[in-house]
Design brief:
about 80 residues; mainly alpha
């Protein structure tokens, strides 16, 4: 009887470790997908937004330095 009980405990432990390995693999895959998504999707979008803001700031600074009167687009 004692041998059967220890065998049952061993089998349960192995089954639990397999579950933990699956969970660890799932977390690893999730991290990998997150890193790739950041590198190829989020980072380029952020770079485009920063470039657009820089371009708008440069245009504004160029306009302010020229001291020209603004042209108003009024519909007549």
């Amino acid at each position: 009887m004692d041998t059967n009980e220890s065998l049952d405990v061993t089998i349960e432990t192995i089954a639990e470790n397999g579950s933990l390995l699956k969970m660890a693999a799932g977390v690893g895959v999730g991290v990998l997908v997150g890193v790739l998504a950041y590198k190829y999707a989020v980072e380029p979008i952020i770079a485009k937004i920063k470039e657009r803001k820089k371009s708008l700031a440069d245009d504004y600074n160029e306009y302010v330095e020229t001291d020209e009167e603004p042209e108003l687009n009024v519909i007549k």
